[in-house]
Structure prediction request, 674 residues.
Amino acid sequence: MTAGDEAASERPQMEAEASDHAVVTQVAGDYAEHHHNYVRGWEYLSAVGVGEDEIRLVEEAYVHTTRDDGVAQPVQRAVNALKRPLGQRNVVVLVGRPGTGRAATALRVLLDVGVSGKAIFNLVLDWDRPRTAQIPSTPGDGFILDLSAYRSLPKDFYEGLIDYQREAAKRDAYLVVLVTPETWKPGSAVATPAVECVGPSADEVARALVRHLAAHRENWLDELAELLGGATSPEAAARLARIIANPEIKKVDDAKSEYLNWNTYLLNWFEEHNSSEELRDRALLIAAALLERLPADIVMNAADRLFERVKGAVPPGGALAGLDLDKRLDAIGASRVDGDRISLSEERHALHESVLTHVWQQRPQLRRVLLNWASELSAPGGIAVKYLEHIADSVTRLAAGPNGGTVLQIVTKWTATDSKPHRRLAVGLLESMAVHPVIGAAVRKYLYDWAGQKNTSEALAQAIAKVCAGALGSEYPRVALTRLRILAARTDQRGAAEVAEAVRVLAARPDRRVLVLGEIVEWAQSEDPVMRQAGATAFLALTDLTGEEPISLSLAAELGGEPDVAPEDPLFVRGWRAAWRHEATAVQAQASLAAWLDSAEVSDEQVIDIAGAVLTGHLGDKGVADLLVGSDAITAVGRRRRRALFDRLLHAVAAPAEEPDEQQEQEQRTATAA
Prediction:
């Protein structure tokens, strides 16, 4: 049975080993604690709890697979594998085709081994390469890890499961891994038990769900029996059951039509509205589908723009010409909702999605026209500019369906055009596609590759950075940071301004400020010069004090507000040291620290502590004397702080009682000269 199961079998696959350049810092810590110690928040994958309704559905309506040969059904086999008498494994793999109900089976397995519904979590794959060290094992919790988007898994993942199994058993945690037969090829690398997941009959699944969700409509299944053949997957049966249970569906025929994506209805409609006089109605239907539940004037104007794009001639007289709105809505089967908004799906649930899919599939020569039209509508000054996200979501659904690759091809070309409307919608679409459950993994991989390619244009680099600052950074912060790291390391500095802004946006969330700063400081301290360049550049972006609400002040306040949980070596100190020692960013690091010394927005104690820690032991370094002596632009605050800093550094130099060595003498001379 399927309850929130994986996407359809045509989902793009992600190659696990193609993006093996991400750096993961492994430090011992508590998964549940996401406070200010930056190493803890990034150590493990984040987890999302399973909803109560979904848990209840699996508890009360799960259909067990039965076999005539007496072999135990998948749930029992998986439970036996997890709680075997001679040494618990605590890890099991469910192998099956998409749509066979693996997600529901995983939930049922975890419930049956005694994990509370509130303690079951889906893991968010905020990584570029599967690593067992990032899988949490908190006591009493159960985790579901869906790796179906990977064509293969790296060898060290299989090997790492051995150590994870020991840790999970010790902590009484459980892990269920979902894979396809093509994904799971462990060979002799791991002894993790794998259970084949074959779903029950579609009719059994549909009836169990309808009884649970809307028992009074179970008889509908008798009339829809033709839809549940032997080849129907449990996932498809679950979809039909939810359609039947939807109170917005009033008739059996409508349930059938929605299940079939309104195919027959739309084929008939387009055949009946085939005359040249009715082409304008077709444009209105498509506009209403793209702009479902938007104001009538926007939909009507958008329809006319589409009609003109296919060389249609709008009747003379403008808004005075033609039939009244209600007549035109009748022609396309739409209605008014919420006052003056237009909806296709009010009377035929989900029809608007099916219209776009139908046109996309049936009229391939119209695809580029539709995308250019959507770009025009959402452009600055466009009639639907306020609804860019709405339009992006609609187009993303097309990208996730059959022949959706066309969308990505066109969108990437848009990023390099001189057209601001096209670039704006391209960013919106890439952002939406990057977090989509079906195509997201593939799109994130494209973003990774583009970020490092030599021929990536300035426009594409800017687009990638903007995507990382948006939904991608919100849902997959480490994935976003990795792409920003690659961009920041580019010697051509393409997209540099957008990268700096994206880093600041990621650090703006209070729960991630110190986490992001800590990750970037790790880069800046790397032995790898490319990584060091990226880290130093990104760190200096976070220290920038310009703008209305600089993120550096929030970071400073957070680091200074709770010294008891701050790392021994403050992050700002480590970051500035690394940026100053890196030749390519030394001058910028000096200027950045000087700006902090001159700013009244940062407390005296904090900035002097930071500057003192950065400079102590390095007074002979290039630029130190310039920083201490300063320039004509120094503020009164800056002069006072420099005197205090100078006194502290002199005291640090004079403090040792023993005979000063040659380096100390040099530092003394430098300080005196300053």
The two ends are 76 Å apart (CA to CA). The longest helix spans residues 636-654.
